[in-house]
Structures are given as structure tokens and as C-alpha cells.
User: Fold this.
Amino acid sequence: MSTFVLAWLLLLVFAAFNNYIIYRLLRERNRTDLMWIGVVATVIPVALFALWPGALTLMSFPLLQSIGMLLIMRLAQR
Assistant:
């Protein structure tokens, strides 16, 4: 298996896992209307990696996921 395929596989697995965790967090608080933030924080890095595959675009995934999770946590507590 090439490193490119492995990078795609791990990116998609972590994206699905992170969105599942975000969904469970928001469902407990009855704030599933904020799910779009997690989806956007996932779609942007995946699209960047699809357009320009490389280490920098792959590293944008955890950064954008962290920013999205921080935003969700702040908005969900209101």
C-alpha cells in the first residue's frame, strides 16, 4: 500500500470518527443544528488534500478540526 493511499485512508477514518464524536456531543445537548461546523471543518482539509496532496495540506486537518471543535464547544454551552 502506498503512502498516498494510507494518507487518504487515515484522513477519511479520522474524519468519520471526529464527526461521530461531534454528533454524539451535540446530540446530548440537543444542539445538532451546530453539526455543520464539524462538517465544514472536515470538508475543507479533505478538499485541500484532494487538490494539493502534500504534508502541509494533510497537516491542516488536525488544525481545522481543533478550531471547529473549539467553536462548537463555545457555541454549545450558550
The two ends are 46 Å apart (CA to CA).
